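Q&A log
Question type: sequence-to-structure
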Amino acid sequence: MCRIMEEFAEEQREATLIQAIKNLMETLNLTAEAAMNALKISEEDQKKLLKKL
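Response status: OK
Response body:
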C-alpha cells in the first residue's frame, strides 16, 4: 500500500510540474527548457518531463 501511495504522489508531483511549466510557457512565452530552469528543475527531471510535455 505504501508503494502505491508513493507512486501516486510522484505522479501528482509530475502533473503539477507539467502544469506549471505549461503556464510559464503560455504566460511568459518561455521555452520548455527556460520554464524548467526558472522552476529550478534538475537536468535529470527535465529530461523526464520533456518527454511528457
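Response note: The chain has three helices and no strands.
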